[in-house]
Design a protein that fits this description.
This protein is mainly β. The protein folds into two domains: about 40 residues, no CATH class; about 100 residues, Beta Barrel (OB fold (Dihydrolipoamide Acetyltransferase, E2P)). Strands 1, 2, 3, 4, 9 and 10 form a six-stranded antiparallel sheet that branches. It has a two-stranded antiparallel sheet with strand order 5-6. The longest helix has 8 residues. The protein is elongated, with a radius of gyration of 18 Å. It starts with a helix and ends in a 5-residue tail after the last strand.
Length: about 150
C-alpha cells in the first residue's frame, strides 16, 4: 500500500522537517514493513506555476490533434503577459486551472524546458501531466486540471 506523507500528517503530528526516510526509520523498529520510500517529483527544478487557460486554438493541419493555448501565469514569467504554449493533451478547456512549467525549468530525466518552435508555433513552456512531473501516471492520460480555487 502506498501512503503519502501528507496523508500521514492528517492523522499523526509530524514535524514539518520530517521526511519519508525519517518516518521509515521509526516504522521499521516498530515492526511495520516499509518496502520503499519514493520522493515524487524528484529531479524537478525551476518555475512550476498554476496557470489559467485563456484561449485554445485547434491546429488541424497535423496528423495528431495539437492545441495552441494562451495561459495566464500571473507575474511568474516576469512580464505578466499570457504564455503561449503548444499542447497535445485534450482533457482541459478554456477557464481550467492547469500546472505549467516555464522556460528554465528542468523536468525529471533532465528534460530542460525552453521556448521552442514546434508545429509552426513557438511554445513558451509546458502544460504538464503528473507523469511528466515525476509524480506517476494517475491513469487519466492527460494533464493535471486543478480545482478552480487554486492560485
Amino acid at each position: 500500500m502506498r501512503v503519502p506523507l501528507s496523508w500521514l500528517r492528517e492523522y499523526v503530528d509530524l514535524p514539518a522537517t520530517e521526511t519519508g526516510r525519517d518516518v521509515q526509520a521509526k516504522l521499521v523498529p516498530a515492526g511495520l514493513e516499509v518496502e520503499t520510500v519514493e520522493q515524487l517529483g524528484a529531479g524537478l527544478k525551476g518555475p512550476l506555476v498554476v496557470g489559467k487557460v485563456l484561449t485554445i486554438e485547434e491546429l488541424t493541419e497535423f496528423k495528431k490533434p495539437i492545441r495552441f493555448c494562451t495561459v495566464d501565469v500571473g507575474a511568474a514569467n516576469g512580464t505578466g503577459d499570457p504564455q503561449e504554449i503548444v499542447c497535445g493533451a485534450r482533457n482541459f478547456a478554456v477557464g481550467d486551472k492547469v500546472v505549467v512549467v516555464l522556460p528554465g525549468a528542468v523536468l525529471p530525466g533532465d528534460f530542460a524546458i525552453a521556448a521552442r518552435k514546434t508545429y509552426g508555433k513557438t511554445s513558451h513552456g509546458m502544460i504538464c501531466s503528473g507523469d511528466e512531473l515525476g509524480m506517476g501516471d494517475d491513469g487519466s492520460g492527460g494533464i493535471i486540471v486543478l480545482p478552480p480555487e487554486h492560485e
